[in-house]
Amino acid sequence: MSTKPFDAIDINVPLVVDLDGTLSKTDTLHEGIVSILFKKPIKIIGLTKALFDGKTSFKRLVTETVTQNADSFCYRHNLIDYLKTEKRKGREIHLVTASNQKIADSINEYLGIFDGVKGSDNQLNLKGVNKLAWLKDRFPQGFIYAGDHKADIIIWNESKGVILVGNGNKFKKDIKSEIPCLAFEDAKMSIFKQWIKQLRLHQWAKNILIFIPIFLAHIANDANVIAKTILAFVAFGLIASATYIINDLADLEADRRHKTKRNRPLASGNISTFQGILGALILFLIGGIISINLSKGLTYCILIYVILTLCYSFKLKRVPMLDVSIIGALFTLRIIMGSVLNDLPLSPWLNSFSALLFFSLALAKRHVEILKSDQTITNKIGGRGYTHQDWPLTLAFGISSAICSILIMLLFLTQEAMVQINYSAPEWLLLEPVCVFLWVMRIWFLSHRKVLSDDPVIFAIKDKISICLGFIATAGFMIASYL
């Protein structure tokens, strides 16, 4: 590399910055395609045809089909701060990108730091050789270039100064030694840890519901049943993780505006949209193969789960009350999977109790979000269908459905479970509704105080009082069964 200081480059030499992978950590074209997939899926057919008309036509159609908001891109703020510093010194800053001109203009309007912007149009795809030719024609006196891609090597080698951003650092050896170089490296991270975070393995705790039917049917001592249910647990966990990826892709814009969700791997750009889609497909494939080999009925249930989840991610999550109803149904479907997998009859008591209880818990989480929202704003909250004024409804429906679920449990215990010969001390079963009642009331108490920050089920795994109530309920069941 050159020993000439980068800061010694004449201030009259303009600084040109790329967009995808440079100014933004992610590819705006990929995100545009994902946005169309979720918001206007029928348009994908037209996009497929546009591929045969060339990349410039394809990019134009993407930008015309869906609006990509400049405030929702995953910017490299350290680079932006540097650009602002250079601009204050008097250096011209230009955005030149292979993305469509419409995207470049929207970013210019949002950031307000560029002296000029140029994007691809119907005639020219500004990448590699094409971009170099345009830059040499536009800036004959020379330029500094900030990029990240292999295609930028020929541009760097014709520039007066090189800025390597993100992945661009690995191309340092390909740049002429006499050209001054500056690097902007991303914070060190483990891609393995990012994927573990993205898969949300802690959410697999919800899938323990698959085991409930075999315990209630008193067949949990059968090794074959346990082994089969564990495999189903893993298969469904992989597919559930795939749906979390799909859900995060659908929520990219909203997550990047959220105080904490912006740190999720996809929203932060630590995992690209392309990698996310590929990862989801692999998980679907592995989980699907396992489930097909276990049980046809289980596979149908998982297919229903995936369809419901995708409908939820695409559209239904924005329909108030229907969104939480679907969440309750998805939890209940986990219990049904355990029954179908082991050829057990479906229990109307268990399934109706589950549907009402998890509907209530889903509303508890939504209730917190509503109470924490700005009551002076009448717009919908975070991509949902609720406004701040809806909190009395979520409170009323949530608590009433919780009480109804406990009533169903009491009726089941007194009318069916406690008169069966499967329990040697059935009176101990009454600990179950007591523990559930205390736990649900605790969830709603914390929810109304805006203290509940996690999903209630995940909260229960971390909360000491919830764990104690769980131990008491489990002990009551064990004593009732084996005393």
From TrEMBL:
Transferase in keyword set: yes
Key words, A-Z: Cell membrane, Membrane, Metal-binding, Transferase, Transmembrane, Transmembrane helix
UniProt-recorded Gene Ontology molecular function terms: metal ion binding; transferase activity, transferring alkyl or aryl (other than methyl) groups
UniProt topology in membrane: Multi-pass membrane protein
Keyword Cell division recorded: no
SUPFAM superfamilies per record: HAD-like (SSF56784)
Gene3D superfamilies: HAD superfamily/HAD-like, UbiA prenyltransferase
InterPro entries, alphabetized: HAD-like_sf (IPR036412), HAD_sf (IPR023214), Prenyltransferase (IPR039653), UbiA_prenyltransferase (IPR000537), UbiA_sf (IPR044878)
Subcellular location: Membrane
UniProt-listed GO biological process terms: glycolipid biosynthetic process
CDD domains on file: PT_UbiA_2 (cd13963)
Transmembrane annotation, as ranges: 204-220, 226-246, 267-291, 297-314, 321-340, 346-364, 393-413, 425-445, 465-482
Gene Ontology CC terms: plasma membrane
NCBIfam families listed in its UniProt record: PRK08238.1
UniProt protein name: UbiA family prenyltransferase
Source organism: Citrobacter youngae
Gene name of this polypeptide: ubiA
